[in-house]
Design goal:
Number of helices: 7
Largest sheet: 2 strands, antiparallel
CATH topology: Four Helix Bundle (Hemerythrin (Met), subunit A)
Family: Belongs to the UPF0149 family.
CATH architecture: Up-down Bundle
Organism: Candidatus Thiothrix singaporensis
CATH class: Mainly Alpha
Shape: globular
Number of domains: 1
Order of helices and strands: EEHHHHHHH
Pfam family, one: UPF0149
Number of strands: 2
Protein name: UPF0149 family protein
Mean pLDDT: 84
């Protein structure tokens, strides 16, 4: 999706940004770039949690309002340079997430750090789960018991993962494998819930 024209600028802190008139692509922004932009805008919510929030809202309704999501994340002065920088990256995140959730090739992926230590990546997964649960509530899911069976069971697992305490990380190799399995479970589950809540319209039959 293209919104107006792309404009690129640079601050006195050497951070390159894209303004509100940016090109909104189907590609997620760089995780570290968004983390830094959020820090400059005094946002203390982790990027993974923000993405989970976005996903939770979108799986309930693909017409979820971007501005409602942004209002939960970004409350600084709209004219502030760093707020504008963060807003542009967040809008890219929202557009890319919506596109990925509806990708027929199932290209959806969780927005998580790649190179951090195992414990930090596990924390990011929990942040994502907490954000997702909150996103469901914001989108109107007040009682998970009313969700379709598969979505209900998966969403309840998301809540449990987000609320889990410390994990045993004594065996790095086993822990890496377990984390990868959790991430894949969450990825596939989000796609499943998106489909259950908003089934794709069947193509018209040709007679």
């Amino acid at each position: 999706m293209v919104v107006k024209s792309a404009k690129v600028g640079q601050s006195s802190h050497n951070c390159v940004f894209v303004t509100e008139d940016c090109v909104l692509s189907d590609k997620l922004p760089d995780y570290l770039a968004l983390e830094r932009a959020l820090g400059r805008a005094d946002v203390d919510i982790a990027s993974a949690e923000i993405h989970g929030l976005c996903c939770g809202m979108l799986v309930v309704s693909q017409v979820a309002r971007e501005d409602a999501w942004l209002a939960e994340v970004l409350d600084g002065d709209a004219q502030d340079f760093y707020v504008q920088e963060a807003r542009a990256l967040l809008r890219q995140l929202f557009a890319a997430t919506r596109a990925q959730l509806n990708d027929p090739e199932m290209g959806f992926e969780l927005f998580l750090p790649d190179d951090d230590a195992l414990a930090a990546r596990l924390e990011a997964v929990q942040d994502w789960c907490q954000g997702f649960s909150y996103g469901l509530a914001l989108a109107g899911v007040k009682d998970m018991r009313k969700l379709p069976k598969d979505s209900r069971e998966w969403a309840q697992d998301v809540v449990k993962i987000g609320a889990s305490g410390e994990f045993d990380l004594d065996d790095p190799e086993e822990s890496e494998t377990a984390l990868a399995e959790i991430i894949e479970y969450l990825r596939v589950g989000a796609l499943m819930m998106n489909e259950e809540m908003q089934p794709l319209k069947a193509a018209p039959q040709v007679h």
